[in-house]
Amino acid sequence: GRPGVREVLFNVARAGIRFNPVLKIFDERQITENRRPGRVALTAVMRKTLVILNAMARDDQPWRYAAPS
């Protein structure tokens, strides 16, 4: 992908893992249950973040926390 977009997503994903419980749990699950290396798990968080942002833009809705199941 484009380097600028990838860099921003990388930084957003790292911050999300630290401060967003949904992304933190997702990252931990990628590493423990799916046995992904840390960098691969981070890439999965980057993609999940992009999917969430795209859905928010598509639906014109703000972020809503939903407890992970």
UniProtKB/TrEMBL annotation:
**Stated name of the protein:** Transposase
Annotated source species: Caenispirillum bisanense
